[in-house]
Amino acid sequence: MNKLEKTFSTYLQDIGYLDFVYLGDDKDDIRDKDVKPVTEKESQSLINNLSTSQEQNNSIITIMLIMLCILFTVGIFFVFYYRDDPMTLCTIFGGNFFALLGIVSKLKKIWTEKVIIEYSQSILKDLKPEEAAKVMMTLYTNIIRKN
Amino acid sequence: MITDKIIKPSQCAIGFGIPTNKADFYHDKTRQDKDFAKRFKTWPMYKDQIVDHFNQAEVTIKQLGVFVIEQFTLDAFRDFFLQDRFDVIILFSHWKKQTIEFHDGLKHFSDIIDAVPLDFSGIIDLCVCHPKDLRIGLDNKRPKCIVKFTTEDALPWFWIIFYQALFMYLQLNDSTYIEAVETVFKKFQHASRKM
Questions:
Q1: Is the CB of A123 inside 8 Å of chain B's CB atoms?
Q2: Rounded to an integer, what is the distance from CA A14 to the centroid of its chain?
Q3: pLDDT 10s per residue in chain B (195 long)?
Q4: Distance CA B15, CA B37 (A)
Q5: Touching check for A21 and chain B: CB below 8 Å?
Q6: What does the domain layout of chain B look like in residue ranges?
Q7: Fold adopted by B2-194
Q8: What is d(CA B115, CA B137) in angstroms, rounded to the nearest whole number?
Q9: Per-residue pLDDT tens digits for A65-120
């Protein structure tokens, strides 16, 4: 479970959206008054946790962009340095390519998280907590957990 | 004797009295004579715990030859026995205060007993939580049939996966229904201990 998934699951657990329902119950009829409403406090708590994750993601993105630039510069340096040795150049090119591939795929994942966080925060800020909770549950089950 | 008979999936029928799609879920939320859907706060919660698992299992279960009915009514339950082609009838639904939920509402357990013919000698598998009175009633009033039930709290998604595995087991092995249930259940317990 990654950090974003954990943040969402903690929030959904707190508001009872991840509670299991059994195929039998001797409880009385479920009425609206029995259902604990989602409060502004819980929405705010998720906004805060998402902001923390967003800050961390922004730092990671900056680091990765710096790494990308360094790799590119080092690549160019080696191209000139080993310009007379095609075998070494091929090896360096291969290593460079796979390193870039790894960084870009990680960047893509973080970028998706960033979009989800921004989207969630705007919903949490603008919608009623109960309505926002439904959207968060949909995001969690359909997108975050499957990512 | 049904306890010694080799059972294949095509001899089984399963009826879902609880909603298995979004339209039924929202419809049940507004109905006075329904209960299960009201225990879920939102559709995504219901979809996550029931519908996703059901949709996944339904394809396999149908391919194996099991007769599957959604929007299961008490009349449909009665029809299962009249068709006289099923040895195992599984009622997958929700128990609430002496009633079981069908698509057409909550039905008192005595109506369910009445729907079972006196001479039915197959297996009725009650996949509902704590149907104690129904089980006792069936045992007393329909002594020829075997009633399988659970005393544990039944998590729907667990049982959906369980039945999928059970029908696969029955298809691949020559086994009686009761043996298959015990074997598959033990395998599930073993797997959960490993996790």
A1: no
A2: 20
A3: 888 899 999 999 999 999 999 999 999 999 988 989 998 988 999 999 999 999 999 999 999 999 999 999 999 999 999 888 899 999 999 988 888 999 999 999 999 999 999 989 999 999 888 778 888 899 889 988 999 887 777 688 999 999 999 999 999 999 999 999 999 999 988 887 766
A4: 17
A5: yes
A6: 2-194
A7: Rossmann fold (3.40.50)
A8: 12
A9: 998 899 889 888 988 898 888 888 888 888 888 988 998 899 999 999 999 999 99
Cβ pair B10, B65 in contact under 8 A = yes
Shortest distance between the Cα of A21 and any Cα of chain B, in A, equals 7
Give how far A110 is from chain B: nearest CA, Å: 25
Domain ranges of chain A: 3-12+41-144
Tokens standing for residue B54: 């059901």
How many angstroms separate the Cα of B136 from the Cα of each of A123, B92, B122, B131, B146?
52, 18, 16, 9, 11
- Contact (Cβ atoms closer than 8 angstroms) between residue A41 and residue A129: no
Chain A, window 78-97: residues with a beta carbon less than 8 angstroms from a chain B beta carbon: none
ipTM over 0.90: no
DSSP sequence for chain B: -GGGSB--GGGEEEEE-S--SHHHHHHHHH-TT--GGGGSSSHHHHIIIIIHHHHHHHHHHHHTT-EEESS--HHHHHHHHHHT--SEEEEE--EETTEEEETTEEEEHHHHHHHS-TT--SEEEEEEE--HHHHHHHHHH-TTSEEEEESS---HHHHHHHHHHHHHHHHHS--BHHHHHHHHHHHHHHHHHH-
CB contacts of B37 in chain A (<8 Å) are: none
Q: For residue B34, what is the nearest residue in chain A, using CA coordinates? A: A29
Contacts across the A-B interface (CB distance below 8 Å): 68
pLDDT in tens, A111-144: 999 999 999 999 999 999 999 999 999 999 888 9
